[in-house]
Every structure is written in structure tokens, then in C-alpha cells.
Amino acid sequence: MSSLDLGVVGNCSIASLIDRNGRHVWHGLGRLDGDPVFNALLGGNDPQAGFMDVVVDGMKVSRQRYVPNTAILETTIEGAGGTARIWDFAPRFRRFGRMFRPPMLVRRLEPVAGRPRITLRLRPTFGYGTHKSQVTVGSNHIRYYGDASVLRLTTDASLNYVIHETEFSLDRPLTLIVGADESIIDNVDQLSRSFLSETELYWQGWVRDLNIPFDWQVAVIRAAITLKLCSYEDTGAVLAALTTSVPEAAATVRNWDYRFTWLRDAFFTVTALNRLSATRTMESYVRFIVDVVEAGSSRGEVHNIAPLFPIAPGTDTVERLIDTLPGYRGYGPVRIGNAAVGQRQNDVYGSMVLTAAQMFWDERLPRQGDVELYRQLCVVGHEAHRAALTPDAGLWEYREREEVHTFSAAMCWAAQHRLGLIARRVGFDAESREWLAKAGVLRQEILQRGTTSEGWLSGVLDRDMADASSLVFPEIGLLRSDDPRFHATLDMVSKRLMKNGFLMRYVEADDFGAPANAFLLCTFWYIDALASVGRREEALELFNNVLARRNHVGLLSEDLDPRTGELWGNFPQTYSQVGLILSAMRLSRSWEEGLWHAS
């Protein structure tokens, strides 16, 4: 049965999810959002195709870990005849003066003890499981092809053993290189050893340059590497997750395609990357968002900017259902594309301005914010002013209803407030005063209409609704964390949305009924809110509780069953990694305190 006990390998061009027994169960051909030639994750309870694995005869136990501070996954399997070790990775390192990140998976097998009997199985499918692969064989490679795509395996293992899935003794190291239909002229054993060494050095060097907190270093490093693996370096986009259609809970149709970049995520993700000092990744992502702003502004179509975008041009975002894969544990439907692309979500204006604001203050960035960028952001700000108090689908993307959501209005306020600060930064003091005055009026109306008779902040204006997004308001500056309204909100959230130490987004019924599982990012928001009001011990307890729910290699999905602690939702979830990073940095002791004053 499928589970989210998965590791991730990748190189910011491609990625693959690998289960505890070393089976590749999700891999997009050619890029992060490509046709999943390995799709067993959505293949029901006993998929017969859509994977790559190693079957060890008489398997007794398997162990899995990451090589420390890398994206290299090591799986050790004990069998009746001996023990095999598998290294999985995607090459990434500097070569010829640029980053080498081919669309290539490398699998290296070695006997550790005895002579384990193994079977190599490679069963890709194409078109989301529509087409089983046809096979042609070369001198050292096998080509698996569908109607329009080809996957090539280059290996020093017996090709006939692979094709016929014949068991044999692993008595020497073997290499499998899976990727584009391109010839590999090098000795594959030497190549895999070289790529493994170079990739290990790259990731260790990348981690060495991170700014990390004193406490929870291993957890933060793993979250940072995973966040990096969810970035598509060619365009700078960051995916919400690497998968589609893993449901939010059991027996629900709440499953979506998250292989896109959401404007809403940008502010939080850029904040995390900035705190980590992952400057290049942050810069590329900011550039991606700013290009969205500039494109919409120059065409005069800011009001039509979608809340989500494909990670590269040419991808269809229209949501459609497919019936060729049964779904995670058989829970369908499987979706390609996301209907939220056509929704009105007014918080995107704030997300764009808050993200672009980085360019006006961050002196590390080679391209600084200038008057021209400010003028384009002004177009966004005017649209935010117009849309602030109008109904939308909200940040939770309700599909069948619209209201005036407090978070959306607050982000429209943030757009205008930050433009006031940016205008001052670029020397337009009169315009700065105008923006700040507009923002002040809007803030007053939001707080007046959004504060309930009991004194807490509602998720929508003019009626009472418990919503975890109200916890973010001090983070964006709408009010201070010592404001009585925020304290009342914190207490309300604890009473109405907390379940067994994990926070729900909301509890009232939506388009699909009442939600069942907690949303992990909201739990991190609650932890941060507790810390901001001085309730550190409570925050620490909840934070360690979340860390204990990470999977066996330290990764998180989107959702969690508050009764069982089981992970649900698309995986790995960028928002969850971001939340972990920001909470750890808020709660951690300083390095000075940790090193010299530890008790």
C-alpha cells in the first residue's frame, strides 16, 4: 500500500520519489512537472507498472537515510543471501563553468555482505499510465518509448536480465543511469562514482553556506535541501509540491495538482530563503515573480494575473481528470492542471509587491529595484486598492463560493503599505504619503469589519468565521502581536481549530463538506504566533510534536491526520518545509547562547 514514507532525490531539473524499499514511485520525465513515467504512487494498492526497483530475494529488513547534508539517498536491504546497498541521486555540480544538472537519475548498487540475489525491474509507462512502454535494445542500453517520449537506461548490468527481470547474484557494483535518450560514451561505473562524489561535494558545499539556527540543525538542513529540490532552476519557479492528486485525507476527492508555482507562496518562501541565506535560489525566484508582475503590468492586465503559474512556458494549467491511474491508495480522481488558475484571489497583489520589495532593500542582489519597477508595482497597487474589499475565492481556494476574505483584504493593504515604503525609498515622498494614507484607511476598515463582537479577527468581513490565516496578520504588519485583538484571535484559534496539537485551516463545511485533517503550515503559524506573544514553552512543545511527525528521512507533506499522525496531501510540501524553517529560526537559541550558555 502506498504511503508517504518517501525520500526525494533531484537536481532542480528533475526529481524522483523513492519508497523505503528503494522503489522509484514518482518521476516526471525531463523536468519536475513532466509526464510521470514512474507513477506507482498513484497506481492504487498494488501497481504492476510505473516504477523502478530492486527486488532482493528473502528481504528481511530495509534501512534508508540521506548521506548527511546531501540529496543522495542510501537504501540498505538485507536479504537471504546477503546485503545490498543502493545509492540514488541526480547529478548536480559545477562543470565547464556552469551548473551541470542533466535530466538523469543515477542508481548505484553494491554488495555489502554475502551475495544477495536481486532482480532489477524497470517498468515505465507514458501518458499518465495510458501507454505501456515498447522496448528496443542497444549495446549497453535499453530504450523504453511511448508515442512521443523515450526513456533510456544505460547500464553495466546484463540487459537481458533487466528486460526479462531475471534474478542474479550481486557480486560487484552495478550502475543504472536513467534519463534522456542520449548516448553515454563513458564507462558507467567510473561515471557513477565520479558523479556521486561530485554531487556529494556540491550539496555539502551548498549546506556549508547556509545560515541555520543553533537548534534543530539537521531538521532545518533537510528542509532547506528539500525546498531547493522543489525549485526549477531553468526559470526560477518553486513548485508547491512535486506531486499531484495525493488526497488531503482518506476517502476524499480533495486532491489537487500542486506542480505549479503559486504567487501566494512567494512571500513566505522568499522569507525562508532569505533567512537561510540561500541567495541564488531566492534571487531566481524573485526574478520569476517580478517577471510575472512586469508582464501583467506592461499589458495592462494586472487584474487578470492568475494566482498560479506553470513552472515553464507551454504547460496547460486547465484542470482535467484522468482515468488511467486509480489514485493514491485507489482514492481518485487523479487530476492534471488546477482549476484555481481561473479563480479571483485578491491576496496575490500583496504577494507580488511583498516579494518584489526584496529588490529595493537587499544589497546582495545584482539587480536592484528601481523607479521603473516601482512604476510597474504601482499598477499592482492600484488594482489592490480597487479589489481589497471585493469578494474572492480566498487563500484556501473555495470552489463554489466567494466572500470578502480578511486575509485577501489584508494582503491588499500590505501591497499599498509597502508601496508607500518603496516610494520613499526611490525618492517619491509625496507618492509615499498617498500610498500610506490609502493603506491607513483600508487598515481601519479591515479591522473594524473583521473584528467580531468577542474581539477576535474573523476569516471574512462582516461575519464570524474561525480561520487560521488570521494568525499571519502580525507577520505582514497589519497589527502588532501585543494587540488585544490578536491575543483574542490566538485564544479563539486554540479553542476552535486545534486538534491534538495540530491546527485546522477552518472547521466549517466548504464545497466538499467539513475538512478532516490538519494543515501543517497553519500549525507552524500557530507556533510562531505563540512565540511572538511570549508563550515560548507552549510553542516549543508544539514544534517538537510536529518534528516527531516527519517521515523516516525528515520530510513533510501538506496535511496530517490529527488522530493518527499520518501524513496526507501532496509531497513534499514546500509550504511545510518553509514553515519548519521559519519556526525553527524563531524558536532557536542563538549560537552564542547555545555554545557558551547551554545548561
Automatic annotation (TrEMBL):
Report the domain of life of the source organism. Bacteria
- Pfam families tied to this protein: Glyco_hydro_15
Protein name in UniProt: Glycoside hydrolase family 15 protein
Q: Which SUPFAM superfamilies match?
A: Six-hairpin glycosidases
Alphabetically, the GO molecular function entries are: hydrolase activity
Sorted alphabetically, the keyword list is:
Hydrolase
The record ties this protein, via InterPro entries, to:
6-hairpin_glycosidase_sf, 6hp_glycosidase-like_sf, GH15-like
Which residues fall in a coiled-coil region?
none
The chain positions of domain GH15-like read 219-581
